[in-house]
Amino acid sequence: MTMRPENLHAEPLLRFGKPYADIWKIKTDFHTQNRILLSERKRIAEIYSQQPLRSVCKICEQKIREGDTTFISHGIKYIVCSHCGHLNGAYQETAAFSEQVYEQDDYGKVYRGETEERNAYKERVEAVYLPKAKFMVEAMTSSMPEQTLNRMRFLDVGAGSGYFVAAMQQLGLHAQGIEISADQVRWGSQFVDEGALVRLAYNDIVKRILNAKEEVVSFIGVLEHIVDLHEVLQAIEDNPHIRYVFFSVPLFSYSAIFESVHPAVFNRQLGGTHTHLFTNESIEWLCGRFNWKMLGAWYFGTDIADMIRMVMVEAEMAGNQELSSYFKDKVAQILDQLQIVIDQQKFCSEVHMLVQKKDNIQSIT
Q: Cys staple from 156: which of 85, 110, 177, 340, with CB 3.0 to 4.6 Å?
């Protein structure tokens, strides 16, 4: 199939909203395990608060200004950068912080599912990761023939247990994932093609990206965890083989605001290893800095689901179990309708985005 010339410069693919029913079934532990998860967040916050104070913005690297907007959430101060709009935690992410949280403490157990069986793994891939992979492909094929896509190779950085790799393989894509957690690689390798999930030390990640022969690099919920973010993004810029970057990042959103006024509830969005949050403005700044063209963006969040969870947890803490259940049943009927309004405002809890390096844009026939 050859793309018609008028399709080669199509408008970016924009999508809003995603039904939450399947996700709700998978993520019930955010509600039922509130005390345990909140305790873990507090433990990580203690480690984070021992790091040096942040003096410059995580994204634009401009000096934090005295007049920048600030607020407190779960004991940590956050600052909205007045230069690029990024939301910064008051402390720096350091190599020591990263090593302790991600490697020594087996952070991946939260996402791995210690007792998860093959069917449950497949269910998570189908409900959570396959839609992401399909969106990526749809955004890419708006500007290229399918034959070109089928010849391309994909590298998933911070692949965890290989969920996104499995989703890409299900679509027939040539994909490999790299991950720093040996436990996640060992566990996830049973669900993907042999050799598709590789363990790399943190210090080897940049080198792997710099020398990658893959044309597409993905970061699914990863960029916000990288200590030396600009070094990784610079490696992408310096590698002529890499043409596309697909990423999902958490956004400064209603979820983060809700959390700041509900200290007794697990702070899923802002806290723990989410020490900073992206905004549309800070993503736009990055696109300008690294010369990216946005090909597709999918805004869908869990802001309303997070709000529901907070009400339910606090109702149950007050002894109102029946009221909690009644509220859940009622609001579940309109959850997606409420969330889509927030998604369309682009102030939701996450975005998935495909960008193309402008220096690699070519006429495709």
A: 177
Q: Which residue has the tokens 């960008």?
A: 355
Distances (CA, A) of 57 to 114, 227, 329: 37, 13, 42
Tell me the C-alpha distance between 207 and 234, whole Å: 11
The residue whose two tokens read 């992408």 is 236
Say whether 78 sits in a helix, a strand or coil: strand
Q: Cα–chain-centroid distance for residue 114?
A: 22
Place of tokens 């009644």: 326
Dist CA 211 CA 188 (whole Å): 25
C-alpha dihedral (13, 14, 20, 24), degrees to nearest 10: 80
Return d(Cα 245, Cα 215) in angstroms, integer: 9
Condensed to tens digits (0 to 9), the pLDDT of residues 282-328 reads: 999 999 999 999 999 999 999 999 999 999 999 999 999 999 999 99
Asked if 44 and 101 count as a contact pair (C-beta separation under 8 A), the reply is yes
Q: Are 170 and 143 in contact (CB under 8 A)?
A: no
Please tell me whether residue 69 adopts helix, strand or coil conformation: strand
